[in-house]
Amino acid sequence: xxxxxxxxxxxxxxxxxxxxxxxxTLMPNWKVSINVWTSIMTPISQMQGLWMDCVWxxxxxxxxxxxxxxxxxxxxxxxxxxxxxxxxxxxLFGLCLATLGLKCTRWGGSHRAKGHTAIAAGGCxxxxxxxxxxxxxxxxxxVITAFLTTDLPDSxxxxxxxxxxxxxxxxxxxxxxxxxxxLSCPGxxxxxxxxxxxxxxxxxxxxxxxxxxxxxxxEQLHSSPSKLPQTDIKDSYSLQEYV
Length: 243
Description:
Blueprint: H1 4-26, E1 31-33, E2 43-48, E3 52-57, E4 62-66, H2 75-101, H3 111-149, E5 158-160, H4 162-183, E6 195-196, E7 204-205, H5 208-223, H6 230-242
Antiparallel strand pairs: 1-2, 1-5, 2-3, 3-4, 6-7
């Protein structure tokens, strides 16, 4: 298993990725308009998110409208909603597993069990990063394609917003943390004592392999005939002749 410091670094990266994913899911600026007006009470910026559309006016007023109808949304927006929500859920579940799989914690079972738990947490983080990357890439492609191919005026065109940047960065953090946790697979069992005996805390119980090896050595020792040294055999012969 990797050292505790590397696992803590992976946990910190995954935590940043989870926080970034949650924030990006709730942010309204997945795509931002490029139009700018200077008259009073006219919008200077329009932005659209997964759950709401917002307008920023030159007077400082910020107005948002919720997207209540799911069926009226385009396919890439529906996919982005589902992917980001699933990514948040899977990443939070991965954080729970990573807490149990950390080497520096006391809970989670033996070192081998912690290794398997860390691998499961890494798999959750990698899956969460893919659930971020796929819908965010699709959404970005749709925005750029609409910007380049349509004949709409510049006042109606949109460009990728800051939420997409946060999504890609968070996906990178989740992917890095997941890879590190997946590399913390359990190695070969050592012959050190694994845990303390409940009856006597000062004594440690051995691994099953160690106990099996000691049992085989004891059976071989009892089954093999005892051999006397050469000097003892000569002494016994001389004693018989003397008698």
